[in-house]
Amino acid sequence: MKALLVYPRYPDTFWSFRHALGFTSKKALSNPLGLLTVAALLPAEWEKRAVDMNVSALDPQDIVWSDLVFVSAMVAQQTSAREVIELCRRLDRKVVAGGPLFTSAWQQLGFDAVDHLLLNEAELTLPRFLADLDRGCPGHLYRTAERADITRTPAPLFSLLDMTQYAMASVQYSRGCPYDCEFCDIVVLDGRRPRTKTGPQMIAELEALRGAGFMRGSVFIVDDNFIGNRHLLKAEILPAIAAWNREHGYPYRFATQTSINVVDDEELTRLMSDAGFGQLFIGIESPAAASLAECNKLNNRGRDQVAAVKLLQRRGFEVMGGFIVGFDSDDPAHIFEQQIDFIEQSGIVTAMVGMLTAAPETRLWRRLEQEDRLLPRGSGDNTDGTTNLVPRMGIRTLLAGYQRILRTIYSPHSYYRRIHTFLEEYRPNPELGIGFRRQGYRLLDFFRCALVLGLRDRARGQFWKTIGSALCRRPGLVGIAVQLAAQGYHLRQVSDRIQRLQIEEQPLPSRPGSRRASRPESAAPAPTAITG
Fold first, then answer.
1. Bridging pattern class, strands 217-221 and 166-171
2. How many helices (H) and strands (E) in the chain?
3. How far apart, in Å, are the Cα atoms of 437 and each of 185, 310, 432, 434?
4. How many CA atoms does the CB half-sphere of 452 hold within 13 Å?
5. CA gap 278, 317 in Å, rounded
6. Strand duo 174-175 + 195-196: pairing
7. Using one digit for the tens of pLDDT, what is the confidence trace for 342-376?
8. CB of 38 within 8 A of CB of 5?
9. What pLDDT, in 10s, does the model give residues 177-197?
10. Pairing of strands 116-118, 94-98
11. Alpha carbon of residue 55 to chain centroid
């Protein structure tokens, strides 16, 4: 059997960092982890090819070569996924689809006609499909409410792709999150009980990365909350990673996602720093207490979040923050300025601000469905200036405020000032030595940045002022300053595009909290984005 595994293309979003990658020799931000894990779960005797459309175009001849085409995607990749599925249909090849796009929204987004849908976790649904395939009677839909034992999950087949084409590599340690934020779909997809891999598994995956040619760089541990099981982290996982990283001369700088209460455990953050962790993505969401209460963001309530961020920076972490506007509790007269002030004061350089969006089957989705406030479909990207819900403050007010936030925080003056604020606080672990600090841009990449940001860009004066300040005050951090400047260039390009969006107003239901008669999807109002 010949299997072609395809990862659809991402649109040009904040998360793609496509404009920043232009300063490097890399083609994409990170490898498709789920797809490569599925490849490892397929029978060893099968022939396998993988195509990441973010790195290279999909050749129709690869489809013709295959017996089955496996497609895995996030909701934001739905447009490209449809194109892949349609091409396979025209070339008379069956499609096996799975991943978050299909698990959470295959009906809502109209993927019913896909030949074989493998929902939930592939460790459980893929064997059932393969057994039916062997019997000559593969079914249409495979799903389960059970959770996989990921201590039995094999290492992804990184060797199917050219790992040198990625700016960072992705691995996974755990699934699930103990918290239950109203807007988050993690508890829907992965549950609330964190399931973890073992220390030997994690080391085996790092070895597999090196074996696939990813010799040095950033490794993103994609867990939705890395610290879900602190005891195991401190007792086994972090010491194992630290020993491996030290033994190999610290080739990898780790990043992950976690909740803000990581700051409360000084021992844990010390172990993470010693292991080589340098970046943490944290869901700040909002500086407004009422909005945090509304979305059940328990860990963030009742604490000085700015102080927590600065403490993490002093412990050696670059904090990347996620922010949301559009909660029912948000006061439109104040929330946008509150978000701007928080981002400026905290020195969070990479601030990802999005408009509240209801992911399928979340508690937010179900509540808004009852209130008749859901709009059809949705892009799956809460940072593209659109939403799939009717906000209390009105969509025009929300979009205008969202645009104001982006216009402010990604303006060259504000962005470069935050780099300076961050570098003033940041204290990387000195024990990690030059092997850790050299994770900045290579010399050739620096010249590319200097050519565009230092000569052609309208903010070239601020670029050189920032780099000069770093050279004088923190010379070991110049590489990080250049990286952040390049990321800012990308963020500004995407922000400029969002500034041109307009969205039609959608009225609230006449009686909030009650559900009117259901409308067919074709009749429901949809957000309209118009390029001005």
1. parallel
2. 21, 15
3. 35, 20, 8, 5
4. 18
5. 5
6. antiparallel
7. 999 999 999 999 999 999 889 999 999 999 999 98
8. yes
9. 999 999 999 988 999 999 999
10. parallel
11. 18
